[in-house]
Amino acid sequence: MRILVIEDDPIVGQFVKRGLEEQNWTVDLEADGESGERAAGQGDTYDLVILDMRLPGKDGLSVLRTLRSRGFQRPVLVLTAQDAVDAKVQTLRAGADDYVTKPFAFEELLARIEALSRRPRQLTSPRLELAGLVVDLDTREVTRAGARIELTPKEFKVLEYLMRHPGRVMSRTLITEYAWGYHFDPGTNIVDVVITHLRKKVDANHDQKLIGTVRGVGYVIKE
Amino acid sequence: MIGSIRARVTLLFLLALLLSVAVFAGGIWIGRKDSAYYRELQRYVQSQAELATRIIMQAETRGPVTIKRDPLIGEQLMPELVSAMEVIPDYLLVLDSTGRALYVSEKARALPEADLSTLLERALDIEADATRATLLTLRSGQIFLSARDEKDPATSIERIVAGSSTSTTEEIWRDLLRSMLMLAPVVLLLGGTAAYLIGGVAVRPIGSIIAELEAITDGRSLHRRLGGADATGDELSRLTSTLNAMIGRLENSFGGLRRFTADASHELKTPLTVLRASIERAMMAKRGSNEQMEYLEEALNEVTRMADLVNSLLSLARADEGRFDLVRDVVLLDAMLRDIAETATILGEPNGIEVTVTGCEALTVEGDAPRLRQLLLNLVENAIKYTTVGGTVELALSAEQGAAVLTVKDSGMGIAAADLPFIFERFWRADRARSRKSGRGGTGLGLAISQYIAQAHGGTLTAQSRLGRGSTFTLTLPGAVRRDTSRGEVPRDGSAPIRVA
C-alpha cells in the first residue's frame, strides 16, 4: 500500500512516515498544501492520503475539497487539533473518510488506516501466534497448546495488543490507551491487574512463561 | 402577583389616593370654622342683636319698656315688647346691669339648666362689639353670641345678647363628609382600576424585553438584539439600548472565548502532538536502556495527562459558550454498563472492592457513546477511589417513566452535606488526605464535565451521599427505549459507528 502524508511539522511527519514504513507500506511525505495536492493529484498513485488540517499556504480543508472536486476517490484520513463536533462534521462533509484528533497515539492512527483501507496490515492477520499461543481476532478465541482460554473483553484487548508487537516492550500508557480508548487515565496501574489475570490464565500451567515485566515501563510478550 | 411591578404600582397608587382623600376630608373638617358658612352665621347673629336693640330702642320712644310685677322677681319686659321680641326665633337675652335676665327667648329657655346658667354668666362677660361674634361652647353644642349695650339711663336694660347655634352649619359639614366617605370606595375602585391598567401599559414593554432576553440563552444566540430601541429616548428605549450594548460586549467576549478555544486547540495540541510523536518514536527504537524506557514511559504518561487536561478545558470552554455538541447515535446502555462494570472490577480488585451489577435492563438511548462512556468511567473511577478496602460498588440500569436511570452506588467515605452542593464545580476535590494514596488525583474537572454531558443529553446527574455511608450518583437520560433482546447481536462495548448526516 502506498500512502501520502501531508503534514507540515517535520517531527510529526517523520514519526508517521517511519511508523507506517515499519508496516511495510510505502510512504511519501509532503510539507505543504499545494505540493501535497499536486502529489495526490497524479492518477492513482496513492491508496490513502493522511492530511493535516492546518498547513502553510493552502489549508487542509481546501486541499480536501480540491481533491474531491477533481475526482480523487481514495480514502482521506484527516489529522486535526480541533475536537469540536462541528469542526469534525465540517471535515467529513468536505469529503474526509475519518479523522484523528491531535495529539494521537500511533496505534490509533494505525487502527484508523487499517479500517479505511480494508487491507489488514501484515501484523494483523486474523490469527496472532506465538509459541503455541493463538489469538484469533475474528472469533475472539484464545488457545494455548490447543487448550481454550476464556478471557474477559479487556483481558483479550491487552493480550491482543501485546501479541501484535511480539518481543517489543509495550508501555503501560500505550496498553491503557489501546484497551480503554484514548482519554482514560485512572491514575492507577489498571494494566497490572489485567496482566496478573492474563498470567494466571495464559502462563500458569506452562513452564515457558510468555508474559514478561519490564519494571517501571510495561510488559512484553516473547518466547 | 404582589411581586409584579404592576401590582405594586396599583397598591401604592391606592394608598396615595386613600391618603389624599383622608387629608382632603380632614382639611375640610378642620377648616370649616373659617368657612363662609361660619362667617355668614356670625353676621346673622350680629344682625339679630342689632334687630333686637332696634326693637327695644323703638319701644323706648313710646314709653317705659319694663314693669315690676313682682317685687321678688324684679323688673321684666313689657308684654308688648316681649311679643315683639319673640319674632326673633333664636337665642335672645335682655339683661340689666346686674346681669339679671329681663327677657329670655323661648329657645334659650329650652336649653338644659346648666347650659342656660353658663349662657347667662358668659353673656355679661363678652365684649359688646358690632363687628364680631363670640363662640361659646356649651354642653349641648356651640353658640355664636353677639352683644349690644343699651346705655339709656331711663331704663334698667343694660345689655342685649343674641345667639345662634352652629348645629345647622355643623350638620351641613357632616353631610358633606358623609357623602365624601360614601364616595371614597368608588373613587378608590376607579383609581385602582385606572392605576392597574396604566401599570399594565407601562410594564408591557418590559415583559417583551424579558421574553426576548430569555430567548438569548447561550453563545449561539448572542448575535441577536432586542427590538424597540427607538429614538424616543424614554426609559424603556434607553434600557433596551443599554441591554443591547451589554449583549454586544458579551458577544465580543464570547467571540474572544471562541477564538481562544480554537487557537488553544492548535497552539496547545500541536506541541503535544510533536512531543508525543517524539516519545513514541524514541520508544520504538530498538536500542536504548530500560532506564531510558522508564523515563520515556513517564514522559508519555504526562503527555497523555496533559492532553486530557487540555481536552477537558476546551470542552468546558465550549460548554460555557453553549456549544457542548454531541454526535448522537443509538447507544446500547446495557452493553456499555457491562463494559464499564468490567473496568470497575479491575479498578477495585487491588483493594478488594466488590463490584456488582444489581440490575441491567436492555435499554437504548439516542446519545453520544464516547461521551456517555467518559461520564460513566468517571463515576466508577470516583466510586472506587473513595471506597475503602473491602467495600462495595453497585451499578444498576433501569427504566423509569421513559427515562434510563443509571446508578453508581458505593459504600465509601461519602461526601459531607456541606460539600455536596459543590462537587460538580470545576476543580472541586474531596479532602485529599482522605482519598487513598494510590496514584494521583484526577484533574478535578471530571464531575463538572460529566454533568455537562448529562445536560447536553437533556438528562441530569445528581448525587446523594452521607458521610461515612457512601454515595450514590444517578444519571437520568430521557428517551430510553426497551430493546428486544431475543434476537440480534449486541456490540460488545455499546458504541456504534459515528453517523454523519
Sheet with the most strands: spatial strand order of chain B = 4-3-7-6-5
Q: Name the shape of chain B in a single word.
A: rod-shaped
Greatest chain-chain contact: A-B, 53 and 56 residues
> What is the H/E string of chain A?
EHEHEHEHEHEEEEHEHHEE
Helix proportion of chain B:
40-55%
Looking at the structure, what is the overall shape of chain A? Answer: elongated
Percent in strands of chain A: 15-25%
Number of helices of chain A: 8
**Adjacency order of strands in the biggest sheet of chain A:** 2-1-3-4-5
Note poorly predicted spans of chain A.
Answer: none
Please, what is the oligomeric state? Answer: heterodimer
Structural class of chain B: alpha+beta
Largest sheet of chain B: 5 strands, antiparallel
The level of helicity of chain A is 25-40%
Low-confidence stretches of chain B: 432-439, 489-501
Number of strands of chain B: 15
Instruction: Tell me the series of helices and strands of chain B, N- to C-terminal.
Output: HHEEHEEHHEEEHHHEHEEHEEHEEE
- End-to-end separation of chain A: 30 Å
**Number of DSSP helical runs of chain B:** 11
Write the layout of secondary structure elements.
The complex is a heterodimer of chains A (223) and B (501).
Chain A: E1 2-6, H1 10-21, E2 26-30, H2 33-41, E3 48-52, H3 60-69, E4 76-80, H4 85-93, E5 98-101, H5 106-117, E6 127-130, E7 133-136, E8 141-144, E9 147-149, H6 153-164, E10 170-171, H7 172-180, H8 190-203, E11 211-214, E12 218-221
Helix pairs in contact in A: 2-3, 6-7, 6-8
Chain B: H1 5-31, H2 36-62, E1 66-70, E2 74-77, H3 79-85, E3 91-96, E4 101-104, H4 106-109, H5 113-125, E5 134-138, E6 141-149, E7 157-165, H6 167-215, H7 235-284, H8 290-320, E8 329-332, H9 333-348, E9 354-360, E10 363-367, H10 369-385, E11 392-400, E12 403-410, H11 446-456, E13 460-466, E14 470-478, E15 481-482
Parallel strand pairs in B: 9-11
Antiparallel strand pairs in B: 1-2, 3-4, 3-7, 5-6, 6-7, 8-10, 10-15, 11-12, 12-14, 13-14
Helix pairs in contact in B: 1-6, 7-8, 8-11, 9-10, 10-11
